[in-house]
Amino acid sequence: xxxxxxxxxxxxxxxxxxxxxxxxxxxxxxxxxxxxxxxxxxxxxxxxxxxxxxxxxxxxxxxxxxxxxxxxxxxxxxxxxxxxxxxxxxxxxxxxxxxxxxxxxxxxxxxxxxxxxxxxxxxxxxxxxxxxxxxxxxxxxxxxxxxxxxxxxxxxxxxxxxxxxxxxxxxxxxxxxxxxxxxxxxxxxxxxxxxxxxxxxxxxxxxxxxxxxxxxxxxxxxxxxxxxxxxxxxxxxxxxxxxxxxxxxxxxxxxxxxxxxxxxx
Length: 265
Ligand SMILES: [Fe+2]
What we know:
Elements: E1 21-24, H1 28-40, E2 46-47, H2 50-56, E3 60-65, E4 71-76, E5 103-109, H3 114-123, E6 127-132, E7 139-144, E8 152-156, E9 160-170, H4 173-185, E10 190-197, E11 203-208, E12 214-219, E13 237-240, E14 253-254, H5 258-261
Parallel strand pairs: 1-4, 5-8, 9-12
Antiparallel strand pairs: 2-3, 3-4, 5-9, 6-7, 7-8, 9-14, 10-11, 10-13, 11-12
């Protein structure tokens, strides 16, 4: 999606699930500080092997699990090749990428525990952007770490856990419109129709991947700077975004036991 050599990787596995989420750090000093802090807080970061760094095309990485057992990696020094990105089809704009990363990932979790909140804000160091009460969709909490309004969000789905969706953003609305046409021409499963979110202003739609999680594709997402003042939208959607899918993504599964519902750390 940009000149980075790796953004998304698909691995063979026993079940369809999210293998890991990577969080980029500024450099080796920030990486070493993060590893020390994770160790100090009891998250036991596991250093990536040379082979793993090669596979992800980064200089260094460390892997650890959050209180719900989702695997995260912090890394630094990603490889890029200037001007190397060629889209798979003609595009009016480009993907939003670079230092803003892939987009955002949304985890479904049974409840927001103090441990998970502390992990996201205190350990990952993200800032709460906004929350949405349960209504037409589940209660959700959105967290940011760059100019995007959110990079990580949690949807509270009682009794369930798993990756809900991954969002990718384009710079031009025509690319979203063309993708919207294309998924319908190819009869791919749409789970939420075209519409505009209110907390973050993104115009997007959601489709189900063969793996079972959803991908949201949109444009016109708001960018926040230091002058940002928190505002609370009266409605979660400006327009559209009708749920038309079969319910929860397949990758959001019932939590089988109390043991799995809480920390696996
Ligand atoms: Fe989203």
